[in-house]
Design a protein that fits this description.
Elements (H helix, E strand, L loop, with lengths): L9 E5 L3 H10 L4 E5 L3 H7 L4 E3 L10 E4 L3 H14 L5 E3 L11 E5 L2 E6 L2 E6 L3 E4 L4 H10 L4 E4 L3 H21 L3 H6 L1 H18 L5 H14 L6 H7 L10 H11 L4 H14 L5
Helix pairs in contact: 5-7, 5-8, 5-9, 5-11, 7-8, 7-10, 10-11
């Protein structure tokens, strides 16, 4: 990896959605970035901005990976990375309940909106939290040199659950209503739905967290990102598959396992599935 002597790190970002494009734009100003896309036409269009490809095999000489794919693609993509790079560190940054054995877990409060195939804008400056293990210290230094705000944390589980709870409350609700995050908290009825979504998620987690405090956090995040469209709303507007199975759908599954009813999450999961059914094969 690059050191203080001036060498730059070579970083592969796998997943050219809103967050992947935003991180690539920031990091490429000071580090060497390879952006791995799903579609050839996107990779070609990005060539004027970044080194872009659809072939993970071209990332054999990178210092580390940042995995920013959708949750439903993450595990398969990680396994493909390991075919070519069995030992190169991989930082996984996904929404929802997802564990990838062998990946360095990250949680971010950055928010981004995808404007086009080649452009994404950061709509909320945030922090990238990395689990403080093994090579994470060196990775954090390179990301900070590249312009990201990074913090190492010994116990990342709490942050993962907190973001999960917040996303359960905001993401799908924005998607089914077509409203931006800030609009959700202005509507009494929608605030009530958000509270029930969050409370059910907290109950099935078995963590003993206080639902009221977690709901307050969701309200705070919605207000801080008030002009943002949730990632799920962006997916629906673009005709893409959503991450509902890893968010509200996961709450329903957990509820079934622990014997806790989750009617609000069942309802909103069904609503999202119905919308997806209008455009997915």
């Amino acid at each position: 990896m690059g050191e203080s002597g001036g060498l730059v790190a070579r970083i592969a970002i796998v997943g050219a959605g809103a967050l992947g494009l935003a991180f690539a734009s920031i990091l490429s100003k000071r580090q060497e970035v390879l952006l791995v896309c799903r579609r050839e036409e996107q990779a070609v269009a990005l060539q004027d901005k970044f080194d872009a490809t659809v072939k993970l095999a071209e990332a054999e000489d990178v210092d580390f990976f940042i995995l920013t794919t959708k949750a439903y693609d993450a595990l398969k993509t990680f396994e493909t990375i390991r075919e070519y790079n069995p030992h190169t560190p991989v930082v996984a940054i996904q929404n929802g309940l997802l564990h990838i054995d062998g990946a360095l877990r990250g949680v971010t409060t950055y928010a981004a909106t995808r404007i086009s195939d080649i452009e994404s804008t950061v709509t909320a400056e945030g922090v990238l939290f990395l689990h403080d293990v093994n090579s994470s210290g060196k990775i954090a230094k390179e990301l900070e040199k590249g312009g990201l705000h990074v913090k190492l944390v010994k116990h990342i589980g709490g942050l993962l659950w907190e973001k999960f709870f917040v996303n359960v409350g905001i993401n799908a609700l924005g998607a089914v209503t077509g409203k931006r995050n800030g609009e959700l908290v202005k509507d009494k009825g929608l605030r009530g739905r958000m509270r029930r979504l969050v409370e059910e998620a907290v109950l099935v987690s078995g963590l003993g967290a206080k639902p009221g405090l977690v709901f307050d956090k969701a309200i705070q995040v919605a207000r801080m990102t008030g002009k943002n469209k949730s990632s799920m709303l962006q997916d629906i507007e673009a005709g893409r598959k959503t991450e509902i199975d890893y968010l509200n759908g996961a709450v329903c599954v957990l509820g079934g396992l622990v014997g806790v009813e989750t009617p609000e999450n069942v309802r909103i999961t069904g609503e999202i599935k119905s919308v997806e059914g209008t455009y997915l094969p």
